[in-house]
Amino acid sequence: MENAYIKLVEGSATQEVSLEEVKQLFTYYKEITSRTGDQLNWDYADSAFPYHISKENDDYFVLESKDSRYNMIIVGVGQESATDEQSQLYIQISLPQQSTHGDKGKANEFCKFLAKKLEGELHLFNSRIMYYYKRK
User: For residues 2 and 104, is the Cβ–Cβ distance under 8 A?
Assistant: First the structure.
Protein backbone atom coordinates (compact mmCIF):
# COMPACT_ATOMS: atom_id res chain seq x y z
CA MET A 1 0.00 0.00 0.00
CA GLU A 2 1.28 3.44 -0.92
CA ASN A 3 0.50 6.47 1.25
CA ALA A 4 0.56 10.25 0.92
CA TYR A 5 -0.07 12.67 3.78
CA ILE A 6 -1.33 16.23 4.11
CA LYS A 7 -0.06 17.40 7.48
CA LEU A 8 -1.66 20.36 9.21
CA VAL A 9 1.34 22.23 10.57
CA GLU A 10 1.67 25.44 12.57
CA GLY A 11 1.45 27.63 9.43
CA SER A 12 -1.66 25.88 8.05
CA ALA A 13 -5.02 27.60 7.63
CA THR A 14 -6.45 25.29 10.31
CA GLN A 15 -4.99 22.93 12.87
CA GLU A 16 -7.97 20.58 12.89
CA VAL A 17 -9.97 18.79 10.23
CA SER A 18 -12.62 16.11 10.51
CA LEU A 19 -13.43 13.34 8.09
CA GLU A 20 -16.73 15.08 7.36
CA GLU A 21 -14.86 18.29 6.39
CA VAL A 22 -12.65 16.27 4.03
CA LYS A 23 -15.79 14.83 2.41
CA GLN A 24 -17.12 18.39 2.00
CA LEU A 25 -13.86 19.39 0.29
CA PHE A 26 -14.32 16.50 -2.17
CA THR A 27 -17.90 17.68 -2.79
CA TYR A 28 -16.56 21.18 -3.45
CA TYR A 29 -13.96 19.70 -5.84
CA LYS A 30 -16.76 17.94 -7.76
CA GLU A 31 -18.72 21.22 -7.95
CA ILE A 32 -15.89 23.33 -9.31
CA THR A 33 -14.85 20.72 -11.87
CA SER A 34 -18.44 20.36 -13.09
CA ARG A 35 -18.61 24.17 -13.52
CA THR A 36 -15.45 23.98 -15.61
CA GLY A 37 -17.16 21.35 -17.75
CA ASP A 38 -20.24 23.57 -18.12
CA GLN A 39 -18.07 26.41 -19.40
CA LEU A 40 -16.45 24.06 -21.91
CA ASN A 41 -19.76 22.40 -22.82
CA TRP A 42 -18.31 19.04 -21.80
CA ASP A 43 -19.32 16.57 -19.07
CA TYR A 44 -16.03 17.02 -17.24
CA ALA A 45 -17.32 16.21 -13.73
CA ASP A 46 -17.30 12.43 -14.31
CA SER A 47 -13.80 12.57 -15.77
CA ALA A 48 -12.42 14.82 -13.02
CA PHE A 49 -13.96 12.83 -10.17
CA PRO A 50 -14.87 9.29 -11.31
CA TYR A 51 -15.49 8.05 -7.75
CA HIS A 52 -18.27 7.58 -5.21
CA ILE A 53 -18.00 6.95 -1.48
CA SER A 54 -18.65 3.26 -0.90
CA LYS A 55 -17.56 2.42 2.63
CA GLU A 56 -17.02 4.66 5.58
CA ASN A 57 -16.47 4.58 9.32
CA ASP A 58 -15.11 7.01 11.92
CA ASP A 59 -11.51 6.83 10.66
CA TYR A 60 -11.69 6.61 6.88
CA PHE A 61 -13.83 6.36 3.75
CA VAL A 62 -13.26 4.57 0.44
CA LEU A 63 -13.58 6.20 -2.97
CA GLU A 64 -14.51 3.54 -5.52
CA SER A 65 -14.96 3.87 -9.25
CA LYS A 66 -16.97 1.95 -11.82
CA ASP A 67 -14.70 3.28 -14.59
CA SER A 68 -12.28 0.59 -15.83
CA ARG A 69 -9.30 2.98 -15.59
CA TYR A 70 -9.80 3.49 -11.85
CA ASN A 71 -10.43 1.25 -8.86
CA MET A 72 -10.17 2.74 -5.37
CA ILE A 73 -8.55 5.30 -3.07
CA ILE A 74 -8.79 5.24 0.73
CA VAL A 75 -8.96 8.58 2.58
CA GLY A 76 -8.51 8.87 6.34
CA VAL A 77 -7.78 11.38 9.07
CA GLY A 78 -5.29 10.70 11.83
CA GLN A 79 -3.13 12.28 14.48
CA GLU A 80 0.55 12.04 15.35
CA SER A 81 2.65 13.69 18.02
CA ALA A 82 4.68 16.56 16.58
CA THR A 83 6.31 17.65 19.84
CA ASP A 84 6.06 16.55 23.47
CA GLU A 85 3.07 18.79 24.13
CA GLN A 86 1.38 19.03 20.75
CA SER A 87 -0.15 16.61 18.33
CA GLN A 88 -0.52 17.17 14.61
CA LEU A 89 -3.50 16.16 12.49
CA TYR A 90 -3.05 14.74 9.01
CA ILE A 91 -5.09 13.45 6.10
CA GLN A 92 -3.86 10.15 4.72
CA ILE A 93 -4.50 9.14 1.11
CA SER A 94 -3.80 5.44 0.54
CA LEU A 95 -3.59 3.37 -2.62
CA PRO A 96 -4.17 -0.36 -1.96
CA GLN A 97 -2.60 -3.08 -4.14
CA GLN A 98 -5.54 -3.16 -6.55
CA SER A 99 -5.30 0.59 -7.33
CA THR A 100 -4.40 1.54 -10.89
CA HIS A 101 -2.05 4.15 -12.36
CA GLY A 102 -5.16 6.25 -12.95
CA ASP A 103 -5.93 6.11 -9.22
CA LYS A 104 -2.42 7.30 -8.43
CA GLY A 105 -2.76 10.24 -10.81
CA LYS A 106 -6.13 11.22 -9.33
CA ALA A 107 -4.81 10.75 -5.79
CA ASN A 108 -1.93 13.15 -6.56
CA GLU A 109 -4.45 15.70 -7.89
CA PHE A 110 -6.65 15.34 -4.81
CA CYS A 111 -3.63 15.63 -2.47
CA LYS A 112 -2.51 18.87 -4.10
CA PHE A 113 -6.06 20.25 -4.00
CA LEU A 114 -6.52 19.39 -0.30
CA ALA A 115 -3.06 20.68 0.66
CA LYS A 116 -3.68 23.96 -1.14
CA LYS A 117 -7.13 24.46 0.45
CA LEU A 118 -5.87 23.65 3.96
CA GLU A 119 -2.44 25.26 3.45
CA GLY A 120 -0.76 22.08 4.62
CA GLU A 121 2.47 20.21 4.14
CA LEU A 122 2.07 17.55 1.47
CA HIS A 123 4.15 14.37 1.66
CA LEU A 124 3.70 12.73 -1.75
CA PHE A 125 3.78 9.03 -2.61
CA ASN A 126 7.37 9.38 -3.84
CA SER A 127 8.46 10.85 -0.44
CA ARG A 128 8.86 14.37 -1.79
CA ILE A 129 7.43 17.24 0.25
CA MET A 130 5.47 20.23 -1.06
CA TYR A 131 4.75 23.20 1.19
CA TYR A 132 1.44 24.99 0.73
CA TYR A 133 1.65 27.18 3.82
CA LYS A 134 3.44 30.48 4.31
CA ARG A 135 6.90 29.74 5.59
CA LYS A 136 8.89 32.20 7.66
Answer: yes
Mind listing the pLDDT tens digit for each residue in 60-119?
Answer: 999 999 888 999 999 999 988 766 667 889 999 999 999 999 999 999 999 999 999 999
Distance CA 110, CA 127 (A): 16
Of 33, 132, 120, 31, nearest to 77 by C-alpha is: 120
SS (H, E, C) 52-110: EEEEECCCEEEEECCCCCCCEEEEEEEEEECCCCCEEEEEEEEECCCCCHHHHHHHHHH
Q: What global pTM score does this model have?
A: 0.89
Report all structural domains of the chain as residue ranges with CATH numbers, in order of start: 2-18+51-131 (3.30.310.120)
Q: Which helix H or strand E contains 21, and what residues bound it?
A: helix 19-40
Q: Give Cα 14 to chain centroid, integer Å.
A: 16
